[in-house]
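Before the break, one more example. Copy the sequence into your notebook; we will annotate it together after we see the structure.
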Amino acid sequence: MTKPYCFVLMPFGTKPDGRGGSVDFDAVYAELIKPAIVAAGLEPIRADDEQTGGLIHTPMFERLLLCEYAVADLTAANANVFYELGVRHATKPHTTILIFAANGAQLPFDVGLLRALPYQLTAGKPAEVEPTRDALADRLRSARGGTVDSPVYQLINGYPAIDPALTDIFREQVQYAESIKDRLASARHAESVEAVRAVETSLGSLEDEQAGVLIDLYLSYRAVQGYQDMVRLVERMPKHLSGTILVQEQLGLALNRLGRGEEAERILLELIKRRGPSTETYGLLGRVYKDRWLTARDGGQTVLARGLLMKAIDAYRKGFSTDWRDAYPGINALSLMEQAENLAPEQARLLPVVRFAVARKIETGEPDYWDHANLLELAVLARDPDGAVGHLGDALAALDEPWKAQTTARNLGMIRDARQARGEDATWVLEVEQALTGHG
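Here is what the structure looks like once it is written out:
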């Protein structure tokens, strides 16, 4: 009896993992993917390593379109694999299984929406192979049931035969979403939680609401500091949306602002475990430890405070090392180093690296409030009053949400307190803080 074919979309050989390490994809195929396909009663086919001027050749398209099953390894976000997956999803409604290394670099989109299967790596090779292999084989067997797994077929009714009436419906949906977006922008401008709640009430049930509208609503609550509303909204969201990285990260932020730091820590650590390191996730985790450090310090718990301070610095450093282009966690690490003993040499080494990251971002894009605020904070850290005043004006001119100025002022206040505790005159820093709080 002829076995159905299962085509494997994945890189070849050993490739960078995006975190300074590498992945042996040949080992992943040999030890994990191929045995799982065989166990499911299928015949594995892996694309050859032929390069034809950078183009995907005819046999590749034939395999993508004609193989009954497919497994796509999204680890390392290989461009060819993503292109091939797009072709597969556009032509096959089901029988495509996604996998990725859970402890690899974060993927460029949330695979949670596509129900991908994570696997573990140790030193670039698959680890804990047997349970993952069994899980992959089970998913392949279940795929025989014909469950639609292509997001194209799931989200577009009647695809590939599209009803012309859908064009009019689409236009109406776009206009509706723009209307909601305008109302939320007005609510944010008015700094009114009640106005944001009024928009939410007008939506009614959220189960069938557009994801973009819900995310805009969610972030609008954040903008007006409606943190309890953020937590409540997550409970109302459809499961496929509430579990996304963005929503879970901001849920961690909201819980922390509500004084529920341990819950926030658990959510963020789970994200790192499932999705890999991220500058945003580590930055939020650093903020959780930072707030707990302040509470312990102000409560006289000296030993606990010291431990939490080091955890905060470590989280921020990891966030910056995950993506050197994002200066936010680097600046927070530098600011907290002011509070710790014996970290001045490390602070001096890190400061120019972070300054370069901010400068490069400004040179290559449109600077926003945080870019100017980052330069302001770096000038304070470098004890440069004239530079700080210049960057203060730029930051205030770009300020769009008051809470941002308040955050910067608090950071500068901690730097000032630490320096004054060491007997240093930091009166000029207080003047910068007051200018920020006057606008926040």
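The chain is about 65% helix and 10% strand. Residues 60 and 72 are 14 Å apart (CA to CA). Try to locate both features in your own notes.
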